[in-house]
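Deliverable D4.2, example record:
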Amino acid sequence: MKIRCARLVIAGLVTLGCGSVQAQTSLAPGTGSGLPETVDAIDSARVTTRILYITAHPDDESGAVLTYLARGLHADVALLSLTRGEGGQNVLGPEQAPQLGLIRTQELLAATRGYGVKLYFTSARDFGFSKTPEETEKVWGEQVMDDMVYRIRQFRPNIVINSWGGVHGGHGHHQAAGLLTPKAVELAADESYKTKTACEDCGPWVVSQVLDVERGSEHPKGTILPLDEISPLYGRLWRQLGIDAFANHRTQGITGFLASSFLLRPIALIREDGKPLEAKSLAVDIAERFRGCTPIEIADRDLESARAAVLQLAWKNAGEKVSHAAALLEDAPKKCGPTPYSQKEEAWEQLLDRNALAARISKAARLVAGLQATAIADRNNITAGGEFHVTAHARCRADAGCKIGEAMLVSVHAFNQTKREGDLQKGEIFTVQAQDDDRPPDGLLGSFASPDSQYQMDAAPASLSDLWVRFQLAGHEFLSREPVQFFDANSTRADLEPLRMVPSYTLAVEPKQLVEILPEQEKPFEVLLRVHSYSSKAESVNVGLDAPQGWNTGGTVELKFDGIGDRYA
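Output generated by the structure prediction step:
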């Protein structure tokens, strides 16, 4: 095998190599599997409202508002950040541009876990401070609008919150976000507009309300949110829960401003069309959404009873109620229609709403059952032809009437399961072999996605392998999916990392840059090549330098590997 180093570019400055960044996230209230999270999941299963909050950069969002909507009102909330913030500052280190974008993506992921919301991005580039929205829209191009329309149609929000609506000064990115949001809402409802990014269930979607955030004074107009009320589940102010999660934006120096009066001001929501905002529209329950559908109305009462049972630690009763609600939901199309086979738009909307409701009930069932399922791989860097092992465990509350059923490993097509042994209670081991010509398919997996793929707009790469565990709760079967991860621990940190496809060998160059004064008499200089093997196979690798014409190099060097490790030339 031969590896040639990146070409040396001599123009007074030689630049070599590049870097990578990893970020570590922290746990937050609402992200575990305890009693508050179980009650929260049941409450969330009883609400159908979907809210999309749109802003320009990571750290533009109001963490207090998002936390209150998602954890206080139990709406299904998503944050759409148009950029990843790669043009911002970095008070922690030297990383800038794409590397900073990676860090800020991880910071926002950690923050949104605390808020309890989903996270999406667009292809918009953060090119630093912009003076006007016109300049911003020219740099961003038409694709950003297409991305916004796609996400609205895919998420199907009842309400869109325009974080920068009505803002006509300051950062051009902020102004552009405020101007583009209502345009995207309008295009999302236009049947003649076709997005470039394909989506099976992304038909035209009508947003019922577009709201602006009023937070610039002590007496904002609109409907003031009760952010300074105490969460009955988590025992802290909604505002404080949001600020705690917002503190994850560490590269922006946020921790120095957490006591700022700006973060403690009242915040209101106001409709862009000037009509009064009905507070109840922020959290429409399932009985109201499916009014007249008796099975779903009964399911709503079952979930209410399950909540009461959980608070009394009556797990068996809670499991029976949640399972009965799930069974009623499955039976609902037969008894109150419209059916999935109807061609009416309302039928399509109700079908997708029932699917979303089923997913939320399933999450509640998993927490009531106390299901603990893990899938830990013995390595996370997978190479072509490489083999790895996954150890899976699963258990749940017997006193909730839970029974573990079948488990299986579901992976991308390039991974083949070759062996399986053991059981879930003691540890079931799956042996997986990657194909020799292994390459993740375009448009499927995170950083491997093509530029026109919706996966480019996701916050994190798609999982390469998942553990599917079926479990029964009070006789009703549910399915839980857990991503396969690798536990990476050393003396300073411990992380759960996803599997990733990597080249068998990678090359680093030292020095990373070197200045040569061309008129001076040439003198030899040394370049150190470090080759890392991710492959567990024995292999010989030849490395060398591609140099400009007239430059002489020392020729290629053969490096022999016994498996994973580093060699130097």
